[in-house]
Amino acid sequence: MTEFKGIFCAMATPFTPDGERLDEQATRRLIDWLIAEGVHGIIPMGSTGEFASQDEGERKRAVELTIEHVAGRVPVVVHTADISTRKVIMYSRHAEKAGAAGLMIVPPYYEPLSEGELFAHYQAVSDAVGIPIMVYNIPSAAGVDMGPRFIDCLTAIEQVKMLKDSTGNALTLQETIDLCGDRIDVFNGWDSLSFLGLAAGAVGCVWGAANVMPRQCVELYELVSERGDLAAARELWRKMLPICFFLEREGYVAGVKAGAAIAGMEIGPPRRPILPLPQRKREDLAKLLAALGIGV
């Protein structure tokens, strides 16, 4: 049985220099690097993976390539969200057939939905697949805030086994862990709360910054969750936190892609309308990464 814990990299999607096509060779290089650096799982087509800017064919090819190249070395949990239940089921069945270990699903966005509609949505996807689902709660992007008590209700759905909490609210994360952490694996999904989330009992982090500093993300998890060495973890976190703040403040996708390049992993530009990080900000990011020994 697949174990879901540790650092799951919300993997960036490498594009060709014009941003128009998936760069398959860069994708393979990125996967190999992430696994060599110790990440415990990979999540393609998430927010950091720019899923919303890709068409159906691009999304499916990227998923197939990722699962094929990972080749069972770590679990692959595919983000299969869309704005209709029908499309989410289609993407989810495709991911399962391709060999995904699990699915991550953000609520349908744009149209406000009731809790009854959200429950029915996740229930329908669960009924259509046979692999675990990670509910992705990110109110700032999805426009709906699924509070701890509603997350507790979702645990009644057969395939709902995990949660990515991207509320950015430490109290909400703690309450969710306390309320239903015995029935659902709760991952922190807000970068600047990673240390606090792990210390509070999250089983791991779904972390886009792992595209930039994967070894350090893994080390933080090991220090807090496996060794209980909070003093060493705080010292490492002191250098990591400014990078997390930078990415949250200056443009996440552009920052991750610039940071990966600084770390020696060129994965192309973001896709428009997102623009590459301006040179001045790239230099600021390089200075923060240098404190971790990255890019020097």
Average pLDDT, to the nearest integer? 97
- CATH architecture label: Alpha-Beta Barrel
Radius of gyration: 18 Å
Number of individual domains: 1
Instruction: Name the CATH class.
Output: Alpha Beta
- The fold-level CATH name is TIM Barrel
Q: Report, as a whole number of angstroms, the end-to-end distance.
A: 40 Å
Number of strands: 8
What multimeric state do the chains show?
A: single chain
State the helix count: 12
Helix content: 40-55%
In the predicted model, the low-confidence regions spanning at least 5 consecutive residues are none
Secondary-structure content class: alpha/beta
Biggest sheet overview: 8 strands, parallel
* Overall spatial form: globular
Strand order of the largest sheet: 2-1-8-7-6-5-4-3
The CATH superfamily turns out to be Aldolase class I
Order of helices and strands: EHEHEHEHEHHEHEHEHHHH
What is the strand content? 5-15%
Task: Please explain how this structure is put together.
The chain is an alpha/beta fold. It has one domain (6-214): Aldolase class I (TIM Barrel). 48% of the residues lie in helices and 11% in strands. The chain has helices at residues 24-36, 56-70, 85-98, 115-128, 139-142, 148-154, 170-180, 194-200, 214-226, 230-250, 252-262, 279-290, and strands at 6-10, 41-43, 77-79, 102-105, 133-137, 160-165, 185-188, 204-207. Strands 2-1-8-7-6-5-4-3 form an eight-stranded parallel β-sheet. Strand 6, helix 7 (170-180) and strand 7 (185-188) form a beta-alpha-beta unit. Helix 2 (56-70) packs parallel to helix 3 and helix 9 packs across helix 10 (230-250). The longest helix is centred in the C-terminal third of the chain and has 21 residues, at 230-250. The radius of gyration is 18 Å and the shape is globular. It starts with 5 loop residues before the first strand and ends in a 6-residue tail after the last helix. The relative contact order is 0.13.
